[in-house]
User: Fold this.
Amino acid sequence: MEYASEAEVKALNTKANVGVALGSVGTGLAAIAGAGGLAGILGIGRNPNPANMPEGDRPVTHYEMGLIQANNQKDNEITLLKSQQYVDRAMAGVQMRFGQQTAWNAVQGANIQALKEQLAGITKTVVPNDSVMPGWGNVAVVPVPPVLPTSGTQSDSSTATSTSNNG
Assistant:
């Protein structure tokens, strides 16, 4: 088998290097041409067709941005109105409960005042005998000084006594 000489090997390597270089240059030029030239790669003067773009990558015009902002503003107003309605309903419930509490407080205040007036009319406190000294039997309660009857008949002071049976 014959081997190539050193000169032949250098010639073959040179041809291969030139081929690789020309192939790389051709691929690069094809990529530049497909991207809209050098300006397309750098993004200069690019006007893409929105119909061919994915939904999330489509550019938005000033008009569309204005519509979006107006829609957001209306959504915010609706949310604000709903929250105000909620607060109004809650406050109406609180006011109703406050009115009921005020009426209840007035009734209870009147009841307490009536009890105070009744207690003020009590001048003597009566304690049952069996609460003080249980089991002592009959006790006679006699007012001191004896009270005379106010009616026209005279009676003796013994009628003013009362007895209780402590059994």
About this structure: The beta strands are 139-141, 162-164. Residues 62-120 form the longest helix (59 residues).
